[in-house]
């Protein structure tokens, strides 16, 4: 598929085919796609988790507001994490970067304080989100990006000492009767977005 065709056909899936399950090959391709995500100064302040077991998905679904059914129906839930604390991030990621990248980080990011570093890491997660949504569509998979989740509950359920959850994406195949698909409900995008 051409990239414009991919972007015209992808949408936020509302109803999934609960009989569809990602293959091992698809899971490996998704992992490699995420591993290759770009980030500012190659900081890669993230970790990813693909959750396919029904029990964990059901627990998380209870803390996902309007996304509850989507998580339960979808094949997998991808959770995007950021480092929990700045010191660990700096020791594990910043210390491995070139001197120029480290200088940029010290002068432009870290110099603004810990809250700025955490916010900057959070912004990097959205780069991974964008890559994931486009990449999944190129694999002819459907997805639902989610901020509307209870991050504290997710953190308690999935608890990882080093990372905290920041975003999630349901992944699977759309149900034939999903009314949000573009053939039923055409996408609406602004025309005049360039200045």
SSE order: HHEHHEHHHEHE
Q: What's the oligomerization state? A: single chain
| Helical coverage, percent range | 40-55%
Poorly predicted runs: none
In DSSP terms, counting alpha (H) and pi (I) runs of 4 or more, how many helices?
Answer: 8
Instruction: Let me know the largest β-sheet.
Output: 4 strands, antiparallel
What is the number of beta strands?
4
Distance between the termini: 29 Å
Query: How would the global form be characterised?
Result: globular
Strand content: 5-15%
User: In angstroms, what is the radius of gyration?
Assistant: 18 Å
Mean pLDDT score, rounded? 97
Structural class: alpha+beta
Strand order of the largest sheet: 1-2-4-3
Question: Topology of this protein?
Answer:
Blueprint: H1 3-9, H2 24-35, E1 46-51, H3 54-61, H4 68-73, E2 76-83, H5 86-92, H6 99-109, H7 114-138, E3 142-146, H8 151-158, E4 163-172
Antiparallel strand pairs: 1-2, 2-4, 3-4
Tell me what you see in this structure.
The protein is of the alpha+beta class and 195 residues long. 43% of the residues lie in helices and 15% in strands. The chain contains eight helices and four strands, in the order ααβααβαααβαβ. Strands 1-2-4-3 form a four-stranded antiparallel β-sheet, with helices on both faces. The two termini are 29 Å apart. The mean pLDDT is 97. InterPro entries: NfsB-like (IPR033878), Nitroreductase (IPR029479), Nitroreductase-like (IPR000415). It comes from Porphyromonas pasteri. Keywords: NADP, Oxidoreductase.
How would you describe this structure in keywords?
four-stranded antiparallel beta sheet, oxidoreductase, Oxygen-insensitive NAD(P)H-dependent nitroreductase NfsB, Nitroreductase, alpha+beta, 195 residues, NfsB-like
């Amino acid at each position: 598929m051409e990239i414009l065709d991919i972007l015209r056909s992808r949408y936020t899936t509302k109803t999934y085919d609960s009989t569809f399950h990602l293959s091992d090959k698809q899971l490996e391709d998704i992992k490699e796609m995420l591993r290759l995500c770009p980030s500012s100064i190659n900081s890669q302040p993230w970790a990813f988790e693909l959750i396919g077991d029904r029990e964990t998905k059901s627990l998380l679904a209870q803390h996902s507001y309007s996304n509850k059914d989507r998580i339960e129906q979808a094949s997998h839930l991808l959770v995007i994490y950021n480092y929990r604390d700045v010191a660990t991030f700096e020791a594990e990621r910043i210390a491995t970067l070139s001197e120029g990248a480290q200088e940029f980080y010290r002068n432009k990011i870290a110099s603004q304080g810990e809250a700025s570093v955490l916010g900057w890491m959070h912004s990097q997660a959205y780069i991974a989100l964008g890559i994931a949504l486009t990449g999944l569509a190129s694999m002819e998979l459907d997805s639902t990006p989610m901020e509307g989740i209870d991050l504290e509950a997710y953190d308690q359920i999935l608890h990882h000492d080093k990372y905290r959850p920041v975003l999630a994406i349901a992944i699977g195949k759309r149900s034939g009767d999903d009314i949000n698909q573009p053939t039923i409900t055409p996408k609406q995008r602004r025309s005049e977005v360039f200045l």
